[in-house]
Amino acid sequence: MKNFNFAGKMVCFAVLFTLVACTESTDVSEEAPAEIFEEPDAVQAEPSAIDLAVERLPGWTRDYKFLFATNCSSCHGVDLSGGRAKTLFDERIFNERTDEQLVEIIQGGMPEVGMPPFSGILSENQTRQMLVFLRDGAARLAESPPFVPSLDGVEINSDKQSFTIELLVSGLDVPWALDFLPDGRKLVTERTGYLRIIDADNNLLSEPVSGMPEAYVVQDGGYLDVAVDPDYENNGWVYVSYVEVMPGYVAPEEPELDRRGRPMNPPMNTVAMRGRINSSNEWVDEEVLFRAAEDMYTTSGAHFGSRFLFDDEGHLFFSLGDRGQSEYAQDLSSPNGKIHRFYKDGSVPEDNPFVDVEGALASIWSYGHRNPQGLAWDPETGLMWESEHGPTGGDEINIIEPGKNYGWAVISNGLQPGIETSSAPGMEEPIAHYTPTIAPSGISFLSVDGEIYPQWDRSLFVSGLAGQQLRRLEIHGREVVEQEVLFNQFGRTREVMQSPDGYIYALIQNPTGGHVGTRLSAVTPGVLVRLIPNEN
């Protein structure tokens, strides 16, 4: 967007307003297009008015907010009420046309309403980025569904399968991950630093597993994933990831302050380990499987990953976020921003794609990831699917294949300073992407038998922190052919899994963020629920 000339700044919003005015929706003013083209240059507004508009506009992307405030806010306003012309933060624009259609219209013009083509002024990438800004802003300004804390017994009629939510366990603190033991017990990590056990009758044991290593709990960090070894009945291994302070770190006597004047975090990163839980619920036989080099520990409290996934050949996959430093994602000498493949004891398979690449970490399976928090196998095709947080918008659902580059931070369908394109040679584009954000976390495929949920055949379930949602994607081969939001009112859905008994379970945390008056990373209560299909 830095290469916008004056004309480019003025026309892009006029074009989008024309799209609003030309829609078949009933709430449309026919005289609006003439008004916008006759409006005096908004760029003449006093700087203080522009600054005020920037502060009132939705979102975090200041460059786009400044362009909007400079060239459009005096006419269209900064919120859903609009100004002398209608708001551009109108979800109808994006619900009734695809981004491809909108780009085509803007680039080619609409002669019938007097809109010339702008292909010589705005590149396709610039046009797409402005659409992302407006789509994100429209969602931020739209009214969110109210939070419903009493979810037990709620009946939901989805597109294909009606079901009832059954509350199994409450009183969890920021529940992050879930897995199932062969005897019916369940393991749950709490981001606040604990591994909890739920017995076979769905009673939460009063005390967490003892003897666990201490986690550094900050923002996105603490205890993260938990996974039970597929051969648990013979070996007893349980795998856990957590955030630790760099070993040997000594805090300075006078703490360093960040740019906001707050004490800096210590350097930290994600650790993957395994151990066993004995009959006294103690953590024993601990083995560290992955620990990054010291120079990979950062003070950022964001983008730790992480998710485990086993295959049928004794391999363990482990995702790690870019740790808030996007340059790591493309650097093959860094573990951050990657999906790794180990044997279950932490050793590196000799057939990993970068084993023979000089300077590359041998454990890397794929790279170019921002914050991957979901991994799952498609039981029909054997493909690995992944969910990943984007920047402002641009959340991704990917198919992960060995050695491939998934683009971060060179390409993105979201808004990020320095990224101006959603495609590049040699980089994989997502199977699906989301703006506004859904903040996807754990994902799970429905098993192929489909006995319990017969109407949900070929479904991938995606938990979403933003929008309080659980989403179902219908998958055919490598494509998402249909999707729906199953619910969006019960809180931040962190994990979804199909258990050995065939039922779908989900971990849900009470909402956080400015809309409920708390920090986004605040500690709030959470629950474990099960989806019970209703008889049709």
CATH topology of the largest domain: Neuraminidase
- Tally of domains: 2
Shape: globular
How much helix, percentage-wise, in residues?
10-25%
Mean pLDDT: 88
Give a structural overview.
This protein is an alpha+beta fold. It folds into two domains: 6-141, Cytochrome Bc1 Complex, Chain D, domain 2 (Orthogonal Bundle); 155-533, TolB, C-terminal domain (Neuraminidase, 6 Propeller), CATH 2.120.10.30. It has nine helices and 24 strands. The chain has helices at 6-22, 32-38, 47-56, 62-71, 73-76, 91-96, 99-108, 124-141, 232-235; strands at 155-157, 162-173, 175-180, 186-190, 194-198, 223-228, 238-245, 268-277, 283-290, 308-310, 315-320, 338-343, 364-367, 372-377, 384-388, 395-400, 432-434, 440-445, 459-464, 469-476, 479-487, 492-498, 504-509, 525-533. The strands form six sheets. It has a five-stranded antiparallel beta sheet with strand order 1-2-24-23-22, with no helix packed on it. The protein has a four-stranded antiparallel beta sheet with strand order 6-7-8-9, with no helix packed on it. The longest helix has 18 residues, at 124-141.
